[in-house]
Amino acid sequence: MVANVLKRKLSLRIKRKRRIRAKISGTPSCPRISIFKSNRTLYVQAIEDINATTLCASDGRKLGIKANKAGAVILAKDIASKLEKAGIKEAVFDRNGYLYHGVVAAFAEALRENGIKL
């Protein structure tokens, strides 16, 4: 029973992810910021989809943070500083199929507070 529930949750997230990705794309001047969350940590990438390259990335394990709202704020501050070094002030937010709630929403708000326009 538990395995079926987990498969269903994952398939629904993948459906949401595909719907989102059909509508947004990253450019060199306005990259796509994609977040991935596991039970233990958070990962973020700024992706330029035209050439399929990652402009910058930030890893929660290397920063020593957990996958909670406080960790999301620290991660947002780190990726915002990397984006500003690269000269990027505007980006598109890819929530990667997750609901815009909790950790994902805290990350997006912290990005806005650190000067990245989403």
Automatic annotation (TrEMBL):
- List the keywords (alphabetical): Ribonucleoprotein, Ribosomal protein, RNA-binding, rRNA-binding
**Cross-referenced InterPro entries:** Ribosomal_L18, Ribosomal_uL18_bac-type, Ribosomal_uL18_bac/plant/anim
Q: Name one Pfam family in it.
A: Ribosomal_L18p
The answer on whether this UniProt entry bears the keyword rRNA-binding reads yes
Record-annotated membrane-spanning stretches:
none
Matching SUPFAM superfamilies: Translational machinery components
Tell me which GO cellular component terms the UniProt record holds.
Answer: ribosome
Keyword hit for Ribonucleoprotein: yes
Q: What HAMAP family does this protein map onto?
A: Ribosomal_uL18_B
PANTHER family attached to this UniProt entry: 39S RIBOSOMAL PROTEIN L18, MITOCHONDRIAL (PTHR12899), LARGE RIBOSOMAL SUBUNIT PROTEIN UL18M (PTHR12899:SF3)
Q: How does it assemble?
A: Part of the 50S ribosomal subunit; part of the 5S rRNA/L5/L18/L25 subcomplex. Contacts the 5S and 23S rRNAs.
Q: Which family does it belong to?
A: Belongs to the universal ribosomal protein uL18 family.
What is the documented function of this protein? Answer: This is one of the proteins that bind and probably mediate the attachment of the 5S RNA into the large ribosomal subunit, where it forms part of the central protuberance.
Q: What is this protein called?
A: Large ribosomal subunit protein uL18
Q: Which organism is it from?
A: Campylobacter porcelli
Q: Gene name on record? A: rplR
